[in-house]
Predict the 3D structure of the following.
Amino acid sequence: MDCDKKFTLITGTFSAGDAKEILMSLIGSKITFHTIRNLSKRERDGTVDSHSVTRINELTETRKHILDLLEKMGKENRSINISSDIHIYVDE
C-alpha cells in the first residue's frame, strides 16, 4: 500500500471576505485542537503540552499576519488565490 498521499484541501480564487472566512475557520480549528489537547494533558497529569502551547502561539501569530494581509487586499478590492495541499506520510 502506498503510504504517501497528497490531497488538495483548498484551491481557488476568493474575495478577501471569503478567504478570511475559510482561513480563519481552518486556523481556529487548529487552535481549538491544541487548546483542548493542552487542557486534557493538564487535567490528566498537571503538566502542559509544550508542543501545543508552541503551536497555539505560532498559529495566533499566523492568524494576525493573514488578517493584516486580507484587510489590505480587501481595501484594494483584490481577489485572493489560495492553494493548500495536505501531504500524508506514514512512517514505516
About this structure: The longest helix spans residues 16-45. The mean pLDDT is 95. Residues 15-79 form one domain.
